[in-house]
From TrEMBL:
GO terms for cellular component: cytosol. Binds 2 magnesium ions per subunit. CDD domains: FBPase (cd00354). Its EC number is 3.1.3.11. Its cofactor is Mg(2+). Residues 32-220 form the Fructose-1-6-bisphosphatase class I N-terminal domain. One of its GO terms (biological process) is gluconeogenesis. Belongs to the FBPase class 1 family. Its main location: cytoplasm. Residues 225-346 form the Fructose-1-6-bisphosphatase class 1 C-terminal domain. It comes from Siphonobacter aquaeclarae. Keywords: Carbohydrate metabolism, Cytoplasm, Hydrolase, Magnesium, Metal-binding. This is Fructose-1,6-bisphosphatase class 1.
Length: 347
């Protein structure tokens, strides 16, 4: 009798397991990035698939960089490379690797005529002179956090070139201004790898499923909260900030806002985009123009944040309307929930 009871229980458990497996198999896998791009191709009547392919090329490079980041501690690719980039900043080994991966993907994809990268002083010519697009990119933002396993990211901005097809790209192709961007986004390499982008019709996020090698839609039509209770700033520089910014930070403290700052622009921005908050990088006496780069850090995140209902400013004007004068131009940045950004502008 006891044996029969155990056998009956075992059969019941097996049925439960099978039912659970059947339910899971019945669930949809989800919408892949590739399928999502194809579904939305019709939003660009002037393009014949080139922009879609360009976004796929970025996703491919992101998968490769994700692999390199995940195994960095095992194959000795953490730490400084011993060289400096064009802005005099120490390059990490992964900075160099990410730069190479994205340059190869964008060049071999054939849809990009020229690239501006944080890691190179001059425009990179791909040889694809018939291509319609140029890209400004920070291949690996927050790379100083690599050695301590903190989230890092990639930031990119895409423009439709204005120089004639069949000729090499020119500086003006990259200095069209923030409002001329046709697509922008970022990749966050963290507890999961997430690609978030906009083509001017809302913001969507995709999470990488490594076992399938695919990005799946995980954050459809992201909307950032109108207000927030998080402020992200390096308070170690507080004495050097302008008086209005110090006053605003004091208000944040008085209101018991949460201070959240990890020193990785993509990581801090992504959290505030989803939860509501503001990221601040003010000018200082040492860096009166700010430290962040306008073309491949501030512009793309400002474009994306506005598409999600947020706001971005240099402290005095809408950031997307700040004129671009050089490819490595720096700019103060206040970005996040619109009410918080407006209060900073009024401080």
């Amino acid at each position: 009798m006891c044996w029969l009871a155990v056998r009956s229980l075992s059969m019941k458990d097996n049925r439960l397991v099978r039912d659970t497996i059947d339910e899971k198999l019945a669930l949809p896998v989800g919408v892949t990035l590739d399928r999502f791009i194809k579904w939305n191709q019709q939003d660009f009547p002037f393009a014949t698939g080139e922009l879609s392919q360009l976004l796929r090329d970025i996703a491919l490079a992101a998968k490769i960089v994700n692999r390199e980041v995940n195994r960095a501690g095992l194959v000795d690719i953490t730490g400084a490379s011993g060289a400096a980039n064009c802005q005099g900043e120490s390059q990490q080994k992964l900075d160099v690797i990410a730069h190479i991966r994205f340059m190869r993907a964008l060049t071999n994809g054939g849809e990009v005529a020229g690239i501006v990268s944080e890691e190179e002083e001059e425009i990179l010519y791909t040889g694809n002179d018939q291509a319609r697009y140029v890209v400004a990119i920070d291949p690996l933002d927050g790379s100083s956090n690599i050695d301590v396993n903190v989230s890092i990211g990639t930031i990119f901005s895409i423009y439709r070139r204005i120089s004639p097809l069949g000729t090499p790209v020119v500086l003006d192709d990259f200095l069209q201004g923030g409002t001329a961007q046709i697509a922008a986004g970022y990749v966050l390499y963290g507890t999961s790898t997430v690609l978030v982008y906009t083509t001017g019709r809302g913001v969507n996020g995709f999470t990488y499923e490594a076992s399938l090698g695919e990005f799946f839609l995980s954050h459809p039509m992201i909307r950032t909260p109108e207000d927030g209770a998080i402020y992200s700033v390096n308070e170690g520089n507080l004495p050097a900030f302008p008086g209005g910014i110090r006053t605003y930070i004091d208000r944040c403290r008085e209101r018991n806002y949460a201070a959240r700052y990890i020193g990785s622009l993509v990581g801090d921005f992504h959290r505030n985009l989803l939860k509501g908050g503001i990221y601040l990088y003010p000018p200082t006496a040492k860096a009166p123009q700010g430290k962040l780069r306008l073309l491949y850090e501030c512009y793309p995140l400002a474009f994306l944040n506005e598409q999600a209902g947020g706001a971005a400013s240099n402290g005095f004007q809408r950031l997307l309307e700040v004129p671009a004068q050089s490819v490595h131009q720096r700019c103060p940045l206040y970005i996040g929930s619109p009410r918080m950004v407006r209060e900073v502008e009024e401080a």
